[in-house]
Amino acid sequence: MPEIKVTPLGAGQDVGRSCILVSIAGKNVMLDCGMHMGYNDDRRFPDFSYITQNGRLTDFLDCVIISHFHLDHCGALPYFSEMVGYDGPIYMTHPTKAICPILLEDYRKITVDKKGETNFFTSQMIKDCMKKVVAVHLHQTVQVDDELEIKAYYAGHVLGAAMFQIKVGSESVVYTGDYNMTPDRHLGAAWIDKCRPDLLISESTYATTIRDSKRCRERDFLKKVHESVERGGKVLIPVFALGRAQELCILLETFWERMNLKAPIYFSMGLTEKANHYYKLFITWTNQKIRKTFVQRNMFEFKHIKAFDRAFADNPGPMVVFATPGMLHAGQSLQIFRKWAGNEKNMVIMPGYCVQGTVGHKILSGQRKLEMEGRQILEVKMQVEYMSFSAHADAKGIMQLIRQAEPRNVLLVHGEAKKMEFLKQKIEQEFYVNCYMPANGETTTLFTSPNIPVDISLGLLKRERAIGLVPDSKKPKLMHGTLIMKDNSFRLVSPEQALKELGLGEHQLRFTCRVHIQDPRKEHEMVLRVYNHLKGVLKDYSVQHLPDGSIMVESILIQATAQSEDQGTKVLLVSWTYQDEELGSYLTSLLKKGLPQTTA
Amino acid sequence: MSQEASRVGHHVTGVRPALDELSVTWQGGATYNDLHVFELQEPTRVIEWIGEKSVCVAGYENSRRNEILQLLLPQKLCVKEKQGLCPERDFKVERGGFSDRPVYSLRHVPDTSLLVTSGPPDSSLQVWQLAAEDTGVIKSVSTIPTGNDSKKPWAKIATTLARTSCVLHGSRVNNVQITEIESKKNIYTADPTPKGQHLYCQSQWLSHVQQLGLVVLGALGSAASSNSNEVSGLEFLDCNTWLACCVKGQLCLADVRQPQSPLGDTSVPSALSGEQWCMGVSSGLQGSDVNAPTIARLSSGGQLTLTDLRNIPKPLKSARCKVSAASQSAEFLCVSWAPVLDGCLAVSGFNGTVHIYDTRSWPVSGGEAESVFSHKGHIFSGMDNSSDFPLVTTHAWHPWKPRMLLSAASDGSLHVWDWAESHKDS
After folding, report:
1. Which chain A residues are Cβ-neighbours of B41 within 8 angstroms?
2. What does the pLDDT read at residue A129?
3. What is the pLDDT of residue A270?
4. Pairwise CA distance, residues A281 & A275, whole Å
5. CA distance B227 to B152
6. What are the catalytic residues of A?
7. 3-state secondary structure of A182
8. Residue B371: enclosing H or E segment and its boundaries?
9. pLDDT > 70 fraction of chain A, expressed in percent and rounded
10. So what's the pLDDT on residue A487?
11. pLDDT given at position A255
């Protein structure tokens, strides 16, 4: 029985380090190659030794697919391809291909240059890794090899985020990566067609969360920024450089415009600027509104938001600064934080998740005294706020996507298994499908019953239609033909065509039946009586009396023989081919009943 | 279905205001300390607190399977004082279960992990178990049948901390009963046989007053037709006395120890008949007199009447709510006392609004009452473009945050809001 096997190496009942192995119709595909932001040891990367102990990864994997540029989905890629060793194709969308190396380089710098780790991938490795990447367009079917094909769908999570359909023959799997079913300011909503995959692998980060509306979160965010600026404070917003930063920029820009505010807004040079450049470049990946207004006004060219210079941090008066990195673990955001932390008028707004061990995580958990480099104690007097703007599908969104794609099975990853039992039951009951939640290293096997497409020859189709009375497209129809399996394809053709193609001679199968008839009259008179009788009974058939004395009913031959010794009994030979079995049998039974007496 | 249709018809000319209008009010008025807007997958008409940190909601759709969800309140809304940061502002689905029938009433049995629900097509009760921590499932445990009269309306339910093994339920005054949940044993039934045809005379009430410290009124006899004594709300006053409010407006008070006297008050608070009524009972715990809860009754015409149980025939105060149109049906009528704010009550069920009134400022025979605050959020919350305004289905006060309420509407919206006290009324 054909089967699909799924083994998460990361993100199984867990968030972080997404990496899922899929075996489908003999092809092995790796979905995402992420790192875990919470660890600095071996657990940081997926355990690739699971794939092969000593062989080359390239021999075991047909391709690698990256859903989007977040590091928990692509952070292990250079390690995987350059240090463990993989030379096969890596697929990602164009924006992901453009942005992913920037984030990898940024991450490498923090790990190696700041934290001083040595056993890590180098800049050159990132470059070499990116050379193996094949960029794909949305809805473009990419043939990985003769049998394996992949196709990207819009996922709306960040710029360039995609869901991927992986297809071999009639079997298919859809992997969602991270997705968002509600459009926001700069991105659209995820969409997929009714592709009915055998399996849908969906993220479930917010599966058990009922989220406060985005409007309320944004209003509170604006209120906080506004209040702080009004009392002359400085607001620091550490951001992840790409993704939500753009959403917040548009939000603040609009608010500043509407409220006619004068306090300056800056964003740190480098990453975000570069990111905005990419947003402009990949304008087709943003939402409709931004695309529409693009000609008149580029939404990513801000009127109120200017580039930040290090010296501005000491300027008097209120200001708002977007700075990287998002978790305050290094770089510019941390520098500004140290400068502003002592003043209670100031505020830091953390717009996303922070990994344990980072300054961001410490202040979010309420720590007010921080030990900085050189045993220096930093007292945090500024206000600390948290606002989560990450865009994931909630339970409603997951159900929506399942409804769109109509999969035969569902598998949940990228979420906590605890508390998900209810969601699993809900999916199973509403869609009558199986729902799985494997842990890391645990393999889920599901059996498929693939359909086998068969081409029908036009001649056969025409012939069958000619026989049928009224064609009804909704009803199944029985067809007779010859199945030819040749050159990896299946065709249903008429027997004649099959014989011709295969160079075979036709064999005929005939049945001949003897029917005894009590009739003292002469042979030809008896035949005439039979002829008249049949002609009377079989009005819809062609009944012929041939010159040689035999009778033809359609293609069935009836002949009289005089071999009987008894003069009163005549013998009729009824002969028909295998194809006419039905009519032949009917005729025999008719004749066995004898001829009507009245005609005498 | 017909109710649904009539509601649509009623508001068919309404035009939904633009979504941005609300955000303007928010910025301009600054009337909320907190406002959180959630969208449930299916609308609920129950919001039941499970302890202080979670609530239960449940679907009430007739045609399909409904969900019962236990939602963990956002951390932000449960902490007593501001200690550090409360990053979470989302509800978490703690547990969930599926009900084959619509859930019209849901009560938690205090101190246990049991829920009791009821809903059409009959008056039976469903018992559920909030399962052990990490499975996250609400399991159906048993059904408490109430005879096979399928014409009985769905049962109203009450539970009490004073009697956690039992549930009080009934659809009509004469079939109110107390059932032991585990054994399903019926341990009390209001007298089903009609007694006197007349009311108890005044002196008899007074003797009851002295006897019970409570006012009890005339027997419910056959004089009242079976429809008129349909119950709209039930409440335990203590472990032995219960109070029912009839759809027609009468209050009915009974003592379990005197099974012969399911007593009621046939006097309707106002002369208006044809209206439907519901009640809210003040918990009385923070009040001065523990034994004297105040009953608020609300009619589908917007009439509000406050009654002291010691003197039922003479309402303390009454007033008229400003409702644009009388409620088409009393289906979602809801009145409740604030657990912390003395004399404040919340009213909903007429439209997409929840009104807060301060009854302390009412004159004895008041005219139109002025609301202290009105939450109009549900009017704006619907994301679909139907011209039908959402109707608030229920609301519930936060147990100890004075001005915080949860409210739900027919479009599936669930709001948590904490209104800011304006300078005018402080």
Report:
1. 395-396, 399
2. 96
3. 63
4. 10
5. 10
6. 203
7. coil
8. none
9. 93
10. 80
11. 92
Cα A451 from Cα B359, distance rounded (Å): 71
Separation in Å, CA of A291 to nearest CA in chain B: 22
Residue A340, C-beta contacts closer than 8 angstroms, at least 6 positions apart = A234, A236, A313, A346, A348, A382
User: Does the beta carbon of A216 lie under 8 angstroms from any beta carbon of chain B?
Assistant: yes
Pairwise CB contact (< 8 Å): A212 & B27: no
DSSP A293-353: HTTT--TTS-SSEEEE-GGGGG-SS-EEEEES-TTSSSHHHHHHHHHHTT-TT-EEEE-S-
The answer to ipTM > 0.90 is: no
For A20-66, give the DSSP string. EEEEETTEEEEE-----TT-SSGGGS--GGGT-SSS-HHHH-SEEE-
Mean pLDDT in residue range A576-593: 88
CB contact under 8 A, B85 and A365: yes
Q: Is A230 on the interface with B (CB under 8 A)?
A: no
| A429 SS3 class | helix
Instruction: Give B-chain residues touching A386 at CB under 8 angstroms.
Output: 85, 87
B contact test, residue of A185, A211, A216 with most B CBs within 10 A: A216
Per-residue pLDDT of A187-198, as tens digits, reads 899 999 999 999
Determine how β-strand B294-299 pairs with β-strand B303-308: antiparallel
Q: In Å, how far are A415, A464, A465 from A480, measured between CA atoms?
A: 52, 8, 12
pLDDT at B97 over 80: yes
Task: Verify cis geometry, omega within 30 degrees of 0, for the bond prior to B262.
Answer: no
Task: Give the residue-averaged pLDDT of A515-542.
Answer: 84
CB-based contact A422:B96 (threshold 8 Å): yes
A488 or A308: which leads in pLDDT: A308
Helices and strands in chain B, H and E counts: 4, 29
Contact A229, A318 (CB under 8 A): yes
Q: Which of A212, A223, A350 sits opposite B89 (nearest CB)?
A: A212
Mean pLDDT, to the nearest integer, of B97-118?
Answer: 94
A291 in contact with B, Cβ within 8 Å: no
Task: Identify any residues that bridge with B251 across adjacent strands, giving them in sequence order.
Answer: B245
- Contacts of A258 by beta carbon, 8 Å cutoff, 6+ apart: none
Say how far apart CA A206 and CA B92 lie, in whole Å: 9
Question: Could you tell me which residue, A31 or A490, shows the higher pLDDT?
Answer: A31
Q: Residue for token digits 């007053």?
A: B209
**pTM confidence score:** 0.78
For residue B121, whether the previous peptide bond is cis, meaning omega lies within 30 degrees of 0, is: yes
Whether the pLDDT of residue A15 is over 70: the answer is: yes
Cα A574 to its chain centre, rounded Å, is: 62
B36: exposed, middle or buried (C-beta count within 10 Å: 0-12, 13-18, 19+)?
buried
Please report how many Cα atoms fall inside a 13 Å half-sphere around the Cα of residue A264, on the Cβ side: 13
Residues A220-266 pLDDT 10s: 889 889 999 999 999 999 987 677 788 888 889 889 999 999 999 99
Check residues A433 and B217 and name the one with the higher pLDDT.
A433
Q: Which residue has the higher pLDDT, A65 or B247?
A: A65
pLDDT at A502 over 60: yes
Q: Name every chain A residue with its beta carbon within 8 A of the beta carbon of B134.
A: 418-419
Strand partners, B95: B70
Under a CB-based contact definition with an 8 Å cutoff, are residues A170 and A186 in contact? no
A323: tokens are 């700075």
CB of A85 closer than 8 Å to CB of A51: no
SS (H, E, C) A57-108: HHHHCCEEECCCCCHHHHCCHHHHHHHHHCCCCEEEEHHHHHHHHHHHHHHH
Q: CA torsion sign, B203 to B206 to B211 to B217? A: positive
A401 C-beta neighbours (distance < 10 Å), count: 24
Pick the closest to residue B243 from B254, B231, B232 (CA basis): B254
Task: Read off the pLDDT of each residue in A376-403 and give the average, rounded to a whole number.
Answer: 89
